[in-house]
Specification:
heterodimer; A: alpha+beta; 5-stranded mixed beta sheet; 9 helices; 5 strands; elongated; B: mainly alpha
Chain lengths: 257, 207
């Protein structure tokens, strides 16, 4: 006897046509194996139905956001850099031509092709020298130590919201109080920049730097105002949390202005 | 962003150079993708990895999405394939995979402690169901997707979806220790105990 397995799923789900239903009933009346299977399947379907959707842990898609932001935000700066690079490439190529011209009589064609390789390297992308230094207005923010303060997803969202609120109220937000950088600022910033892997760009202005814990883990919290381009008004408050140890991203929160 | 903007329109924007708009799709679908991965892999850390990989892959391959299916169908297909890949890697290096992590343990999800015994049992039992059956079952019975959409996601005919669904359900019930004619869970499933059996079940020994 063949067992109509395709019908048995629909039998339980109540999706059979009257004809299919009659066929299934007829088969079940004659087949104990299928009756047993339907009984088991009903149990499993009921159990699966009880499963609830679980919340997604904080930060799971942070690397995706990082990927999106590295490729989008610095476009303008990147283009400017590429132009510079192209010019630099020309200069390097000119220099190489001179080297090759000098070397050729002695070294022959093999070296010339290596010089070609060097020329390619000279024009290959490299990080713009200026970008690291100007990143996120780094040196102007002191590290706030908040011993005993433990953040979680909710308080992080509030932090982003408050920042967005304040930035919105101070309109341009250009005249924030500047405090002297502390010894810890550097370490915290380096950790944030390492953990976020380029997600924080030169267009993001660091407004607060906090040392606290996140769900019990010692962490650095960086609060940034993000804008679509250098010198443009901020559009979003972004909070990144990295572990003090290892600098991996623990959490991320954002609020549009 | 317009909250009622269709996924497919967002995709068009991303394809048109507005890469940041992909974030809208992440926000809309991350929870479902994560839950799919959680049921498919049975482990939170694997679900996290699979979710990340699925979205990064989707972003990279977005140009291959031609709009012949709903975006969510396409994304689910990417996610299911990511889970298959991850499970295959896990099978190939079952021990290496379990060595201590070099990364600090991620913060536990807030509701995790609430996971009932039932859902832990089911999580474990699901892993004993063949992957092809499990995928169909998770998509249909947990995520409530219709047969046709499951068929489009998994890439098999609707009839195959139905028979896999039936076989998967039977396998899951057996993995949970159920026997035909045995005790059945009441309508309020969570209080259900494993059916008492006089001898230890096979599953308990192989685990």
């Amino acid at each position: 006897m063949t067992h109509p397995e395709e019908l048995l799923a629909g039998y339980l789900d109540g999706t059979l046509t009257p004809k299919e239903r009659a066929d299934a009933d007829a088969h079940l009346a004659a087949c104990e194996l299928c009756r047993e299977e339907v009984e088991l399947a009903a149990l499993a379907a009921a159990v699966l139905d009880e499963l609830t959707e679980e919340p997604i842990p904080v930060g799971v898609t942070a690397p995706v956001w990082a990927e999106l932001r590295t490729r989008t935000a610095p476009l303008r700066a990147e283009r400017r850099w590429m132009r510079l690079q192209w010019a630099a490439g020309l200069a390097a190529a000119a220099a190489l031509v001179a080297v090759v011209a000098v070397g050729l009589p002695r070294l022959g064609g093999g070296e010339a092709s290596r010089a070609g390789g060097l020329a390619t390297m000279a024009t290959a992308p490299a990080p713009p020298a200026g970008l690291g230094a100007e990143q996120a207005g780094a040196p102007e923010v002191a590290l706030e130590s908040q011993p005993g303060v433990d953040y979680d997803a909710a308080s992080l969202t509030r932090l982003a919201e408050d920042t967005a609120q304040q930035a919105f109220q101070s309109a341009t937000g250009s005249d924030t109080t500047k405090s002297a950088p502390t010894q810890g600022s550097d370490v915290a910033l380096r950790c944030l920049s390492q953990g976020t892997q380029g997600a924080v760009t030169g267009n993001d202005r660091l407004v607060r730097l906090i040392q606290a814990t996140y769900q019990g883990t010692p962490a650095y919290v960086g609060v940034y105002l993000e804008s679509s381009g250098a010198g443009q008004a901020a559009t979003k408050a972004v909070v990144w949390v990295v572990a003090q140890k290892g600098c991996s991203v623990l959490a991320y929160a954002a609020k549009r202005l | 962003m317009r909250p009622d903007e269709r996924d497919e329109d967002v995709v068009r924007r991303v394809a048109g150079g507005d890469r940041a708009a992909f974030g809208i799709l992440v926000e809309r679908h991350e929870r479902r993708v994560y839950n799919l991965a959680l049921r498919m892999t049975g482990r939170e850390e694997d679900a996290r990895d699979a979710t990340q990989d699925a979205f990064l892959t989707a972003l990279r391959k977005l140009s291959s999405y031609r709009g012949e299916a709903a975006f969510s169908t396409w994304l689910h297909r990417v996610a299911v394939n990511t889970c298959y890949d991850l499970l295959r890697k896990r099978r190939q290096a079952p021990l290496l995979d379990r060595l201590p992590e070099h990364q600090p343990e991620p913060p536990p999800s807030p509701d995790h402690a609430d996971a009932s015994d039932l859902s832990i049992d089911v999580r474990r039992a699901l892993l004993e169901v063949p992957e092809d059956y499990r995928a169909v079952m998770v998509l249909h019975d947990v995520q409530d997707l219709p047969y046709e959409e499951v068929a489009a996601i998994v890439g098999v005919p609707v009839g195959t979806v139905k028979s896999r669904l039936h076989r998967g359900r039977v396998a899951l019930a057996r993995a949970l220790g159920a026997v035909p004619g045995g005790e059945r869970p009441g309508p309020s499933g969570p209080e259900r105990e494993r059916p008492e059996s006089s001898e230890p079940s096979d599953q308990a020994e192989t685990r």
